[in-house]
Design brief:
Blueprint (H helix, E strand, L loop, with lengths): L80 H19 L3 H24 L5 H37 L1
Helix pairs in contact: 1-2, 1-3, 2-3
InterPro entries: DUF4190
Keywords: Membrane, Transmembrane, Transmembrane helix
Protein name: DUF4190 domain-containing protein
């Protein structure tokens, strides 16, 4: 037979565990969650309660090996310093030749760009380098700085001299 005055749950009034020595242990109040922005201060670890302990937390990130996985070497990237040098020298040679008063330096840099561009292109064809486009561009810029722009300059001077002679007569 049941008691008609029994409370729901059958263990007495709820929340009266402070006076009951066999009731559930009191949990410390949880701190409020921080709002937006920087995270709040770290909370101290909770004191162990009664009963079976909870699952252990695994480490967040496994420790990394300092030099990569053992037994494997990192793949080396083929480089083409010759092709890059040819490109840079070719661009500077074209600019120097276009300025007019640095034509001598432009021609020298153009010759060097042709040499470095050809070597870099050969390395790229053998598979020792990857930037065949830079080497080819350096080769072309060297040719432009060494041959085409000085010829264009000579042509303009010749046209000016011929035009000047024609105006004098």
């Amino acid at each position: 037979m049941s008691d008609p005055n029994a409370q729901p749950g059958g263990f007495g009034p709820p929340g009266d565990h402070g006076n009951n020595p066999y009731g559930a242990p009191q949990q410390p109040p949880t701190p409020p969650t921080p709002g937006y922005g920087y995270p709040g201060p770290a909370t101290p670890p909770a004191t162990p309660g009664y009963g079976y302990p909870g699952p252990a937390t695994p480490p967040a990130v496994p420790p990394a090996t300092p030099y990569g996985a053992p037994g494997y070497a990192a793949p080396t990237q083929p480089s083409n310093g010759m092709g890059t040098t040819g490109l840079v020298l070719g661009i500077i040679g074209v600019v120097c030749t276009l300025t007019g008063f640095l034509i001598f330096f432009g021609i020298i840099l153009g010759i060097l760009a042709i040499i470095f561009g050809a070597i870099g292109r050969g390395k790229a064809n053998r598979g020792e380098a990857t930037n065949k486009g830079a080497a080819t561009t350096g080769l072309v810029c060297g040719i432009v700085a060494t041959v085409l722009l000085p010829l264009l300059g000579l042509l303009l001077v010749a046209v000016g001299v011929i035009g000047g002679l024609g105006a004098m007569s």
